[in-house]
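Input protein
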Amino acid sequence: MTEQASGQDKQCPYCAETIKAAAIRCRFCQSDLRASNREGTAAEGRSLGSPGPVRAGVVNARLNEQSANVVIGEFVLISVAIGLWAGSWLAGGGTLLALMCLMAIPALSRVLAVLLGIGWGAAGVAIGQFFGSTGASIVLGIIGLLGGIGGHLNAAQYVRDLGSE
């Protein structure tokens, strides 16, 4: 809980918590506050205005959560497609359950990330071919592959973070 700022308090420029006006390091995010008084200098390897460690952790957690939401949507679409193809709600539901369980096992979630990333890469290649461009196929394929793997790994990290609390 943050206390009201008085003449002896100020707000940390990195995490916005209320700290003592004479503080040279924020007690919440550990940012060096002396750097905030020197425009354009670096403090402890961070450039002025870069987030402190707490803020960077929050931003990373939000990215992982957003990636997990996208992956869950992807899992639902894959499960619906398999259910329609098999003509069975049970096949679709089983696929969804299996994909969710695979995300909870670190080694298998990495394999799943690579396989689904390859799927996104193939989709990028197909889009490039649709436009009749080999160059576009290559670029979109690489973007799809790397973006897919990265997004799935972020989602897997989010699942592991939930399990560690």
The chain is about 65% helix and 5% strand. Residues 53-86 form the longest helix (34 residues). Confidence is low (pLDDT under 50) at residues 36-48.
